[in-house]
């Protein structure tokens, strides 16, 4: 690993050589750590991006499902209201006096309720 200085070199040169080699090793280690950190950061960013995209897709699907359900409920309520109106109209045509009596009864009940206040 460590290169030996030439024989006969002074101890200061040997020490200087070791320090230079240590600096090179530290610089190499620093570069390696930077590459690893950059790779981990990129992976984390990809994971967060993927999770955000998945969440967005799920929220979109949920919103679409809610919209469809709301639309179906509104259509069903409209159909029921039309059916009720049709049935009331049919009953009124078959029995006009019953319809007048029902309206009179509803009026009396509402009048009694408002009078009690």
What characteristics describe this protein?
117 residues
**How many DSSP H or I helices?**
2
- Count the strands? 0
Shape: rod-shaped
How much of the residues is beta strand, in percent? under 5%
Describe the biggest sheet? Answer: none
The whole-angstrom Rg is 44 Å
Query: What is the total number of structural domains?
Result: 1
- The mean pLDDT is 84
Quick gist of this model?
Helices cover 89% and strands 0% of the residues. With 117 residues, the protein is mostly helical. The protein has one domain.
What does this structure look like?
With 117 residues, the chain is mainly α. The protein has one domain (11-115). The chain has helices at 11-94, 96-115. The longest helix is centred in the middle third of the chain and has 84 residues, at 11-94. The chain is rod-shaped, with a radius of gyration of 44 Å. The protein starts with 10 loop residues before the first helix and ends with a helix.
């Amino acid at each position: 690993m460590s290169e030996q200085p030439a024989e006969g070199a002074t101890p200061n040169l040997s020490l200087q050589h070791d320090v230079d080699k240590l600096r090179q090793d530290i610089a190499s280690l620093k570069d390696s750590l930077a590459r690893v950190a950059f790779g981990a950061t990129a992976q984390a960013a990809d994971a967060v991006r993927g999770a955000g995209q998945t969440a967005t897709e799920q929220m979109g699907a949920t919103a679409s499902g809610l919209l469809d359900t709301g639309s179906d409920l509104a259509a069903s309520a409209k159909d029921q209201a039309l059916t009720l109106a049709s049935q009331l109209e049919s009953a009124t045509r078959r029995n006009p006096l019953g319809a007048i009596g029902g309206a009179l009864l509803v009026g009396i009940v509402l009048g009694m309720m408002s009078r009690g206040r």
